Every structure is written in C-alpha cells, then in structure tokens.
Amino acid sequence: MVSTFIRHELKAFWRSKNTGKSVAIRVVMALLILYLFLNVLFVGIFLDKLLGEIFANDDLVKSFCGILLIYFLFDLLMRLQLQELPTLRVQPYLHLPIKRNTLVRYLALTAVFSVFNLWPFVLFLPFIFKIIAPDSGFVTALAFIIAIAGLTVFNNYLALYIKRKSNLNGWVFLVSAVVLILITSCDFKWHLYSLHDISYAFFGRLVTFPVLAIVPLVLGIVMYYFNFLYLKQNMYLEELTAHKVKIYKSSTDIPVLARFGAVGDLAANEIKLILRNKRPRSALVMGLFFMFYGLIFYTNSHYGQNWYIFVGMFMTGIFIISYGQFMFSWQASHFDGILVSNISFSDFLKAKYLLFTMVSTVAFLLTTPYAYFGWKIVVVHFVMYLWNIGINTTMVLFFANRNFKRIDLSKGASFNWEGVGATQLLLSFPLILAPYLVYLPFMVFKHPDMGLIALGVIATLFILTRNYWIKQLEADYYSKRYQIAEGFRNK
Q: What predicted TM-score, i.e. pTM, was given to this entire model?
C-alpha cells in the first residue's frame, strides 16, 4: 500500500494545475537546502576545532557531550516554526477496504523524511568518526549515533504532535514555545542551572555505559506511538483544522431529540429522510393503517390469545419490520459519506434504536383504546412493545449488516422491488417465530400468563443490555462495511 500511496501522490502532483510553479519552487528549495547542507557539513568536519576554541579548558568529548542537549532544544524550537506537517488526503481512502492503521502508519512514517532529520547526522557524524570512534571504540561511537537518532526521532514527532494539537488550540503552540524559551533563558540569561552540565551528565556516560543509548531510542519510539494514536483518533479533516467544541450542541430542530446530542441529530435526520421520501414514508403510513389490525382479531371470538401475540407484535412494531428490513439501504446513496465522516457507528446504531423506540412507543399508545376489549390485550401489547424495542430492533440491525442492496429514494413505492432480496425473506422468519419459540412451551403446559412473563423478562434483559448488543453489532458492521458499501454502489 505504501507504493500505492506514493504513486497516487506523485500523480496528484504532476496532474495539478500548478505543477510548473511547484517544480520551479522545489528546484529552488533543493538548491537552497543543498547549500545549507554543505555549510553544515563544513561545520561538522571542523567541529573539533570549534569546540577546542570555545571550550578551551574542557576535553573535546566532554564539550561535544555538553552541546548535544542544547542543540536538540534549539532544533525543537526551529521545527515548531519551520517544519511542515506531512499530509495525505485520507478521505478518498476511508470508504475503501484499507485498514486505517495502514493509512495512519504511512502518514506517520512519511514524517521521518524531513530535511530536519538529516541536520544532526551531517553535523555530528564527522566528529563521532574523527574523535570518538578512534578514542573510545566502535561500540561507543555506535551508541552516540543511536542516541542522536533517537533524539532526532523524538524531536520530529514531538514537534508534529505539538503542531497538530495547535491546529485545534493555538495556545498549545504558544505555551510550548514559552516553555522552550524559559528552559534556555534559565541557563543563558539567569544562570539557574547549566544545560551543558546536564547534557554531559547523560551523554558523557555513553562513553562508559553505551547501553544508555537505548533511552533516547525508547523516547523516540514512544513519541512516534503517541503521534500514531493521535492521528488515528483524528483521521478527519474537520478535526485537524477546526476548533472542537467541548460541549456538544445539538443542531436538530426537534426539541425532544436535542437532549440526546449527536444520537438525537442522527435520529432527527432519519425522521427527515422518512418524511421527505415516498418509499420510507409509505412504511410509516402503513404502520398507521395497521393500528386498525386489532379490529379484525379482537372482534372475533374465534381468535384466542395465541393470535394476540402476533397482532400485538405487528401493531406496535410494524414500522420496525417494514422500515427496518431495508436498513441500511435507505442511506445507500450517501453511505460512502457515512464511512468517511466523523460519525461514531455506535451513535449511528443508537439513533436507530432511538427512532424505533419512539415510533413503537407512539404505536403502543395508539393501541391502548383496545382496552375496550379487555385489559389483558393492553398487557399483551405492552409485552410485545418491549419485545419489539428490545429484540426485534436488534434482529433488524443484525440483518442490516447483511443487506447489500441499494434503494433509490427518488423512486416511488408502488411496484418498486428495489432493495428486496434474500435478506428480507430471511428476516421475516425470526421476527415472527422468535416470540412463539418462547411462548408456545408455556401455552402447551397451560400457563399462557407465564409465557407472557417470560417474553417480558427476556425483552427487558435485551433492553437493559442494549449497550452490549450495540458493541456486538458495531464489531459485526466493521467486518462487513466494505461489502455493504460496494453493494450500495452497484446501481
């Protein structure tokens, strides 16, 4: 994948309208960098002479060890001002079957290819090979190289981390710069301590304990890991460029849903989708007509309590069945947008639960007048209402992860078989049969009321453990999201 990303970026560069201008700028910058490299290399070759003049009373190795920490402090300050953030337009890849870790790893590792990471080697390697290697041996020289490499990586990713955090909050950059300035000022201006001595206290020990070189290396790896985690958690452009609001403010114009935050917004958007499009609206209208379904069964004494279970489930959950069987096909036209946007899928699922719970609650309240035929009917309706929002909703969302057929919302509902497939056929059986698998054993042994209690208890358990089922559905979705998206793209 790394070669693919590089190839795509090269194509994007050469196909850009500003390619000529970009090439000219890069050529000029390359010449300038080459000139700076030659100057730094010149300083590196004669670094022993310079240190001998500046620190005439100190040993060369001690002087060298004393300036390393000071160099990396100024290096960090320069990086904060001049080092550019590596970029990759990740959104075009997020809806494709590419692991996010791969994208983040590429973005994090490309940061290593910065000219700032070459300066310390060009500057210090000549001294290490001229003075340290002949005097202290190859192992000590290698320890210094590893330590310098570790601090270079640490500075590289610390600077990038601070700059990325600064994109969200400008105070981060200001505080970081002030801290660095105070650290250096406390030495060079106020003489509260000596950075030279602190630097020598560590790097001087590399001569006798080369294994200490692993400390800067570990610091570099840890800083890379922090940078990796931050990139992974902020893969979206709006998070890296816009100031995040600490307190979420709902944007829905449905006051009842505003208290649910992002979940309420998603549920409100779904309600708007239903009301503005014919086919999903027909599922809602059909649910209203099913409110009269009970008149067929409750006015006829031939139908017993066995049928009450079926009728109660349909009247309080017809919307879940009719609308939910095409989940997530209703979002097929913008499903790729859902994949690449910063929407937590657990919130997406919670919005579905919220929507189904609200509609089923309204449906249950509309069926309470059937108490005219007996209060037991209302009890059955309530039990099946719990069953619908606890179990049937979970079943519908489970099968939604296996529905790859798109629906065009612009088309009408009459004689429209778009989106209908094997998933809908398979879904109907567990929705209808599941409550009877629990209820009929009690009916056979002449304890129908215990059967109702069992249905209510199981449904309540599912409602109480809803967060667990959401996590399971989310994990199942992540294993199938690219198949769903690919199916929805097929028109």
A: 0.57
